[in-house]
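User: Structure tokens for both sequences below?

Assistant:
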Amino acid sequence: MTPTRLLPLLAATLALAAPAPGARGQDRPLALKGATIETVGEAGRIETGVIVLRDGKIERVGPIDEVEIPEDARVEDASGMTIMPGVVEPAYPFQVPGESSSSGTRTIIIGGRVITLGGSSPTRSPIFTRVADSFDPFRADFDALLRSGLTHLDLVPPDYGQTAVVRITPDDPDGMLVERDGRLYVSVSNSTASLDVVRKGLEATKPDAPGGGRGRPDGPTGRGRSGGDGASGRPGGPPSPGSSSADSSRDLWKAVAEGKAPLLADAGNAAAILYLLDAIEDFEDVEVALIASGSDVYRTLDRLSGRGGVTLLLRPTIDTMPDNRDRINLPRIAHEAGLDLAFSQGGNRFGLLSAQDTPLFDVGYLIATGLPREVALEALTARPADLIGQGDALGRLEEGKAASLLVFDGDPFDPYSRLRTVIIAGRTVYETD
């Protein structure tokens, strides 16, 4: 049986083998045999391997001559295919229902004309938002992203707040929200208002701060459903000192200051990167997952590489050097400078959807021009999973982790290879002939 002819049967078998959402009990395992397996774990690349899935998890994985396939397993020949972990997106913009990405308007005067622009004034204090309070799985529009190989998204708020992790399971909306209490996220520019969020948030964690390190950072206000987790009950107004929104922001800043969780920071320009590094300079334990353009990172590379604890979230693309049109492989340059990196494509939904015939072509081009293959694989899977606090379950094909994986009919980075099947928690959520 050829791999291409196997695919519809494989998808049907997976759907039958996996338990229904919320179901309990032990189903027959499924063994995919003969595929090349990119584990992105300690086992590395397995040229001819077996992976066994049961009840939404990986039960066994390894070389074909070392893995004992359970007697009750359905066995499918996956020869010629490549299996890799699902792509994890660490910073996917979330639109709060009923609001623009930056609430409010601002007025400017050009040549004597008064023009009103959408978006808030750069001097406005960012609003603290818990994504989970506004997330409605029945209104989520993520299905199309499956064709790009994305299986999990870390949803980030418009300006400032707490992220939430979802998996793209359109047939199981109740199971989409994986983690309500995600990472702390802030969008920074070279405006005082946005930088003060970082400065005051960290300062409030110091032992000598008002309240003995338990003071509430100035600036954030609560937003969410009245009575919901993290909601103040007064959307748009400041939370009371005892509100869950104030507690959320305080606890999140404390975790960042102590190095227990990274700060997701979206820097609008090169100056913002430098100001952000200045703001965290006195807090040696702070780790930052920095979202920035390739050209802005290139401008500030010396400063970034001189501070530990920075992970770059970069688009997987060839950039141009600042002030000229010379093309550069910024992920390779950053890696060679000793910086950790993960790929983030969430801010370019159009690009994701327009390249679905070859979803990993851009990453393949980066590899062809010098980025190590294993670094690229980690940047798509394991590294972002670790950053968003899901490394124990996602990002690697290892025993006990979630059975969330992609099946290609060849090398995932070959432009002639196609994504054939997407599996999340052991269930087929996308497949094509």
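Moving on to the next sequence.
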Amino acid sequence: MLFTLCKGFMQKFSFLIFFFFFLSCSMEEKSQLPPFKTVVSSIIGGQKVVSPEYHSVVAITYKGKVLCSGSLIDSQYILTAAHCILPVELPQQFKSMEEFILETKIYIGTGEEEGLFKGQYEIANIFTHPAYRNHYRGKNDLALIELKKPILFLKPLALLTSVSDLKAALQVGKQVEIIGFGHRKNVFGQLGDIEKKVGVKYKTQMPLVEVYANEIVLNKSGKGACQGDSGGPALVHIDNQAYLIGAASRVKGKCAGEESLTYYSLIPDSLCWVKSKTGVSIGDFEFICSQQISSQDDQSFLDACLMAQGKTRLTVEALFRNLNVTSCRQLDLIRKKVQQLNLSNEFLVDVKLLKFFSSLTKLDLSDNQIQDISALTKTHSFAELDITGNNISLAQISEIKANKLIGRKKQKHNHFKTHFFQACMNYENEPVSTQEVIDEVRLIQGKEDCLQLHIGLKSMTSLNLSGMGLENLNLIKEYHEFTLLYLDYNNLKDLSGLSQMSKLESLYISNNKLESLDGIETLEKLNYIDVSENQIVDFNSLYNVKNYLNITLYGNLDKSPKVCQQLPLIDCY
């Protein structure tokens, strides 16, 4: 799984920021985002690993072929990249996460030349970093693989958990050792165009040339990582001991090229999350993590949030979305300051966690499936509370303290009103284009139930609806977590339906019937859009864009937009 990084902006290194990215590589650096080029190889310019010291660097295999690399950090846990186990760019290849777990195995050994070998250890569970969203930028591209049985005969790789040692290690010019597996042909059958030794564990050393907030950058002509090395370790040596500091992220430029840059995401600031999942010792970071807990009440909330499952987990995820946070620790830091909260239409059943939001005065819980609200009747007095469309008993309603209580007599649950949910329930009578969208979502999620599909869409970050004959985006306009959309080869005439997708970063909408880009200014995080082969008369809407934007626009009626020459934040191709 390789991708091309184009333009980006990163701040200098500081602690307490999440640190994970994915490995991607292109044959040449482009000034625009995808289409991507797959390049396959193992560590380039390195030596074969024969020392038992690195047996803890493992290969992640899918159906008997190398997929990625990883590091054993505990007898039962592998640390790797999230994109290795959540390949969002090729979701159609996977029937379900259950199928992926069943077909994926962990291999221990030095590898084989053709990269065709089966792993020996089965997977029990997979945990992706809760903040992982966008596979283009790779932020928080981190995952933990839990094995069914512990590997007791291997010594796990040591995490670098000393703050002073970490600062000393992250100095420009320091040598960093990288290790990984690679393969000539990827698991999806696409042939690469570099012939190197593949499927064999290799290592090499590269100098550190930059340290950023989220990653380190390595560079040495003729050396570097490439596909198959994703998730593999970056190590520093202190007193003859190897310490894990990074996971393979991506390559900017040609793999091992003279001017290429090899990016490894830094691990230390995700150690609190690693600790919560694995229980491993994290040294100095034990104190750093503990400082985020200020009282017994805080500890109770944090424990409840981190351990939430089932119905409670739905509440946690709804809070993440509505408060724009990505972890329980971030939620813990702001919960006492939250005064207004809209949790309407979130399929909520359990609202016990809301009792920890002590400053809430205005709360919308309409159109959920709540039956028990007693946790709030005992702790809160609201200025306004909306409970319309739930199943709360009159006895509990009588105990609610609210100056304005909406929905007292409207407790017959009216469920979800989104276009997608209604269309899904009416599937047989819907047009072919609508059925194709529903089928695509079912294929990605591996589910049939319309309610579960609706819930999944509320957190889905990428979707491919190319070539489905869509004339509007009504089916997806009520879902706002998308960072990547493919809408090529449809019949769309405008961008309406996207206005609420404030997190959208990459949009492919070529070969439609667009006449303008009106509304594009509302997509404040959009950094790439392909509108080629449309019917756009002018691009004046781009004058309203405040953020950097890379746009592909050939094949439109306005063949030489003036805005491209006048605005420094707009790059046109």
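User: Anything stand out in the second?

Assistant: The longest helix spans residues 310-323.
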